[in-house]
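Input record, target 12 of the design panel.
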């Protein structure tokens, strides 16, 4: 069932939307999801859609993008499930367990019967009923609803998403790919909620791919909670590749336990307005986190990355690197906060943000931050904003490489430091190819992506 809503007065009309449709929002949802929904709604109303008057959203005013006339899916749409059935990801040699969602609702899964014994993948609302002990223990336990209005909004409005559970000692060899397909005849507001739990001594890699196949305006609020237990290894790759009418707010909240190792890599290749919120909490000794990001923007696109690495316990390490390339009149922002708490002795924390501005009209705001309350630590942070190196360009020209090719080579060398962190080889190669095409102005749909439908699509799937 779709509900059409016209939003002009943000606070009043989102409140009305929630209250008028509460019975539909709660219908079929797990008890804890609905209990969390009520409290989160109050927090959302208190805070409202962030403007740039909110310190953490200083460089991104979201309010204009949440105004308008939107369809919102209050139940799954069987008529759209054919889009998932026809989906064909064109990454050569990429072998994954595919999971599909349509406008935030779980649609189907290709081959999850081939998953290792005990691994659970499915709809969050359905699996919550089948595995209540897992859902009750973890759902909404690591979401900063009281700190971030967009997290609270997701908790209040989201009805479905993906549930991934990896039991103790299980290694999932093939990545799990979550493809969220956005489709509709009208502008659309989409909420999606994912819960991922990786038990002790387990390993899994997850790929998130949001794919808009309709030319309409989409406003997307996605949130993923991740719990990584002792001695486990977890990778997650968030590939954002949408058309210019897409506004996306993506929340990634990771909670680590002893001797766990996590890697997040946020790859914003194309979008209209993107805000990424990434929080990692190292809540036990000897945790290791790798937090990476690459963002490419041109025309009037805008990308804002906010990260918070919480060293809550001693003997942990974090490595953070974000790089951006801004062209035309694009704008970007990076705010990275590393908190080292008083008990977190023997902490190693490294943070870096580097940016290339290719025109005088492009701009970036960078704000790296270290907040240290322990004395036995090794921490560093830094940021750079600059243009292509004239000396390097002269060197290339002197060796017969023309200006255009030299420019592309330098941009790609700059970006590759993040690309090389990808630990799934076929995905790494495909991202490398997409980034090179982006720099060459050849960015297009995947050659074999059936969903895209038309030549000249401005987006590309994985």
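The sequence produced for target 12 reads:
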């Amino acid at each position: 069932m779709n509900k059409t809503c016209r939003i002009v007065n943000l606070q009043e009309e989102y409140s009305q939307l929630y209250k008028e449709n509460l019975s539909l929002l709660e219908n079929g949802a797990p008890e804890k999801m609905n209990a969390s929904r009520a409290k989160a709604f109050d927090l959302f109303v208190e805070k409202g859609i962030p403007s740039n008057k909110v310190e953490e959203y200083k460089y991104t005013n979201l309010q204009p993008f949440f105004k308008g006339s939107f369809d919102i899916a209050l139940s799954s749409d069987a008529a759209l499930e054919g889009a998932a059935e026809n989906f064909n990801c064109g990454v050569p040699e990429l072998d994954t367990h595919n999971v599909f969602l349509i406008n935030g609702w779980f649609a189907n899964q290709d081959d999850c019967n081939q998953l290792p014994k005990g691994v659970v993948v499915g709809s969050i609302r359905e699996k919550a009923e089948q595995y209540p002990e897992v859902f009750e223990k973890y759902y909404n336990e690591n979401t900063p609803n009281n700190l971030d209005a967009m997290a609270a909004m997701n908790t209040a409005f989201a009805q479905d998403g993906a549930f991934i559970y990896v039991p103790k000692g299980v290694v999932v060899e093939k990545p799990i790919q979550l493809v969220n397909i956005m489709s509709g005849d009208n502008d659309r507001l989409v909420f999606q909620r994912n819960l991922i739990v990786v038990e002790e001594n387990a390993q899994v890699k997850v790929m998130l791919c949001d794919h808009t196949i309709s030319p309409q305006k989409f406003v997307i609020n996605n949130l993923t909670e991740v719990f990584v237990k002792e001695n486990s290894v977890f990778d997650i790759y968030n590939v954002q590749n949408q058309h210019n009418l897409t506004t996306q707010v993506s929340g990634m909240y990771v909670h680590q336990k002893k001797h766990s190792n996590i890697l997040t890599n946020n790859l914003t290749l194309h979008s209209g307005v993107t805000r990424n919120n990434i929080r990692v909490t190292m809540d036990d000794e000897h945790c290791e986190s790798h937090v990476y990001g690459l963002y490419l923007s041109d025309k009037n696109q805008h990308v804002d990355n906010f990260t918070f690495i919480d060293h809550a316990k001693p003997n942990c390490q974090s490595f953070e690197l974000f790089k951006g390339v801004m062209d035309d009149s694009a704008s970007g922002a990076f705010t990275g906060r590393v908190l080292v708490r008083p008990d977190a002795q023997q902490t190693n924390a490294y943070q870096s943000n580097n940016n290339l501005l290719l025109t005088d009209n492009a701009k970036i705001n960078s704000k790296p931050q270290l907040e240290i309350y322990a004395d036995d630590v090794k921490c560093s942070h830094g940021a750079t904003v600059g243009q292509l190196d004239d000396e390097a360009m002269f060197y290339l020209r002197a060796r017969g490489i023309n200006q255009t090719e030299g420019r592309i080579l330098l941009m790609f060398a700059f970006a590759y430091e993040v690309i090389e962190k990808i630990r799934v080889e076929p995905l790494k190669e495909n991202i490398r190819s997409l980034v090179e095409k982006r720099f060459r102005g050849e960015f297009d749909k995947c050659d074999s992506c059936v969903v895209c439908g038309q030549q000249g699509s401005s987006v590309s799937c994985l």
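The longest strand covers residues 188-198.
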